[in-house]
Amino acid sequence: MRSYGSFSSSLLVPRAEGPRDLPGLIYYLRHPFLYPLLRARLLPALLLSIFVLTTLFIWTYLPQVAFLAIFHGRHLAWINAAFLVLGEGAAVTALLFEAFFVDETLVDVFDATLIHQQCQDLVATSRQLDREASNPVKQLGKPTTSAVYSPFSLRQIIEFILFLPLNFIPVAGTPLFLLTTGYRAGPLHHWRYFKLLGLTKKERKTYIGQRKLQYTWFGVVALLLQLVPVLSMLFLLTTAAGSALWVVEIEEKRRSMDTSGDLPSSPPFEDDPP
To answer: How many other C-beta atoms can be found within 10 angstroms of the C-beta atom of residue 30?
Structure first.
């Protein structure tokens, strides 16, 4: 059986900690040890992104502009159609590439960031570590349990496509689309964290329910970054770094409350044996 620290009520107390999408970008750019994880995927990601977006803009952009002009007027139609095509491109790219080939890289970025921020023990619950290695990426060994950053969700892809027509609503449509999809996608960026803690489905729902606004905001910003042409692969990795920085903040506050004695202690949490 596996355990990590004390799963006390402190973990479920709402905090003021906040999402770190943009700090994740700054962190990634300032730490070169993470760069090899991008280089390994950069060329195929760029080629696929360019191919998908070029194809969609050539064949679907003008028809969607014409259709949206009926609802939005001529000027807004050009802008909203661009968001629509970029959203479609993000969905297609995720389906063809990201969900199947990048998740392992996202796990490595997430884990390496945790190691660099002194959360080695958390990562060690799920993979072997070479603590003598020269940098956090080189410390990463083979996973000892299933290592998934964000599970592939056909439901999420379908919902993403179904929510695209929200863009037809004048002015408010695009922000509503971003909020709706961000609300659904935000918690998935901490799937790896939940698995490292060994939380049950019920505990995950409780934890997420107390941080709905933070997760929605994180998901919205992550989605906006994914809509940036060509750079979506880079922003995938920086978002994983930002997700890990958020975990570091949560863990620091959780451990501080556990050691301060403000809350009653509870026995270590252990998940069910496999």
So the answer is: 8
For the cut 50, the answer to whether the pLDDT of residue 88 exceeds it is: yes
Contact 147, 126 (CB under 8 A): yes
Residue 219 near residue 27 (C-beta atoms within 8 A): no
Q: pLDDT tens digits for 216-238?
A: 999 999 888 887 777 777 888 89
| Reported pTM | 0.77
- Whole-angstrom distance, CA of residue 220 vs CA of residue 216: 6
Contact at 8 Å (CB) between 82 and 228?
no
- CA atoms in the 13 A half-sphere facing the CB of 87: 26
Q: What is the pLDDT of residue 32?
A: 92
| Count of beta carbons in the 10 Å neighbourhood of residue 261 | 8
At 179-190, the pLDDT tens digits run 888 888 899 999
With 0-12 / 13-18 / 19 or more C-beta atoms within 10 angstroms meaning exposed / middle / buried, residue 60 is: middle
User: Helices (H) and strands (E) in the chain — how many of each?
Assistant: 13, 2
Q: What is the CA radius of gyration of the chain?
A: 20
